[in-house]
Hints:
Layout lengths: L2 E5 L2 E3 L5 E8 L2 E12 L6 E6 L5 E3 L7 E6 L4 E6 L8 E11 L5 E4 L3 E5 L2
Parallel strand pairs: 2-11
Antiparallel strand pairs: 1-3, 3-8, 4-5, 4-9, 5-6, 7-8, 9-10, 9-11
Amino acid sequence: QVQLVESGGGLVQPGGSLRLSCAASGSIFRVGFMGWYRQAPGKQRELVARISSDSDTDYAESVKGRFTISRNNAENMVDLQMNSLKFDDTAVYYCNADITPRFASRREYWGQGTQVTVSS
């Protein structure tokens, strides 16, 4: 029943901005870390940004100063504001969350992925 629902993504020009959103829903007891990963063609999936339940953050070096991750604990949501986008940001972006359901064991959940394409 627990799932991550993503929104956002799309085609954007270099230097432009996009905002990705993800909400955890279902019978949830607790949501720990939430984050965004991305995978470009021919490359391994990498962590883009992560935020703890206390709003401590980690960013990939390649996105520091350009991306901002935030969360709303009341809504079990996490956002990724992406500014100054570059060609190398093109990838499928995946929402990730460490969730303890009310009626199941704790584990990581993944969204379905959303395509971000940076192109002129």
